Amino acid sequence: MLFLLFLLIVCALICELVSVKNALFHVSYHCRPSQSVVEPGEEFQILTTIQNGKWLPVSYLQVVQNLPHDICLNAYLGHFQSDPTVARLYSSCFLGPRQKLTRRIKASLPQRGRRIISDASITGGDLLGFTSRSRNVPLFYEIVVLPARVEEPALSRALGGFLGDISVQRFILEDPMLTIGAREYTGREPVKSISWKHSVRTGHLMVKELDHTVENTVTVLLNVEGGSHEELERCFSLTRMVLEALEKRGFSCSFLTNAATAGAIGQWNQVSDGLGAGHTRAILEGLGRATYDVREPFSSLVNRAVLGARDGQAHVLITPAPLHKGDAFLAPLLQQSQGRLFIICAREDGMGSQEVRG
Fold first, then answer.
1. Which SS3 state, helix, strand or coil, does residue 93 take?
2. How distant, in Å, are the alpha carbons of 208, 287, 292, 347 from that of 231?
3. Least confident stretch, 137-141, 179-183, 304-308, 327-331
4. Shortest CA distance to 57 belongs to which of 97, 93, 24?
């Protein structure tokens, strides 16, 4: 009887030593967001996976996951701590042999900006609960919160009138189209596009290839110099409103800013002409990453716009403080755009937006 008891004690000690040594052996942990770009307050999921890849159980496993400090966890009943720099999500579980646990935690972020899901630490306990071992799990996932949408009916109407004038001017030319060549008729083109002159010359039906001599293009400028944080947040939201209005009306647009940005897109300060939801989304992501730092003076941003613009290129300028047509540094931009300049100021002192036209 004593021998059996001794044998059981020896076996328990061996199992204890093995469990201590292999507490985190073949134990993996991963955490990622379900979306990398979200709206303010939009619900997304934090996906966590814990897996025990060995044939021995893990009697106790604790995970401490670092999350953005202002994250809101919806209906999460576990232990959660937050301070001004980081939030910590605590969870624990038992893992059986070859077991995998997956959790989906509903979350949201309230304000524009770039957030990081960073490292986690995992702690595995021994079989008898006497000791434990810990390991750091390096993680790095970005979540970009876009600028909030704003409703500005009066500004929307004024902007719509400005864009409407640009569209009309595009078609008041006697010949807004330019023939740049000809290609073989495929049957998908309208009959009126057939060039009989080219067809006779080649012996095959040919259609004219046309190009617009004047395009619906607008350059959007965002200045962040000279504004408070609240005013700059309003600038970001107003810029979003302008970009979505251009996309809705089918305008091609380019974008320039003197705002610094954080994260993967690096020194982002210019986006070339483009059209469509993907183009707009790329600019909006940059606005979500934008900080309050100024990369260059406002005057340099205007000079950069003038150097890159075509004659008559329309411009929409978003800035924190009111501007006036008589401001000296605006003169080259007014001349280059032939007066087609629409200015939006974010400062709410009775001058919410202005329009400047030559």
1. strand
2. 51, 14, 10, 6
3. 179-183
4. 97
Question: Which of 201, 184, 202, 170 is CA-nearest to residue 193?
Answer: 184
Instruction: Render pLDDT for 264-286 as a digit per residue (tens, 0 to 9).
Output: 565 678 888 888 888 999 999 99
Under 8 Å CB-to-CB from 255, ≥6 apart: which residues?
Answer: 219, 220, 221, 222, 243, 270, 271, 283, 286
Using CA atoms, how far apart are residues 18 and 24, in angstroms rounded to an integer? 11
**pLDDT at position 11 over 90:** no
The span from the CA of 301 to the CA of 317, in Å, is 11
Residue 212's pLDDT is 45
- The predicted-structure confidence for 108-130, as pLDDT tens digits, reads as follows 999 999 999 999 999 987 655 56
Phi, psi at 14, each rounded to 5°: -65, -45
Strand, helix or coil for residue 348 = coil
Domains and CATH numbers, the chain: 25-145 (2.60.40.1530), 153-172+215-357 (3.40.50), 177-212 (no CATH)
Q: Which amino acid is at 255?
A: F
Residue 326: the pLDDT is: 66
- Map 132-159 to HEC letters: EEEEEECCCEEEEECCCCCCCHHHHHHH
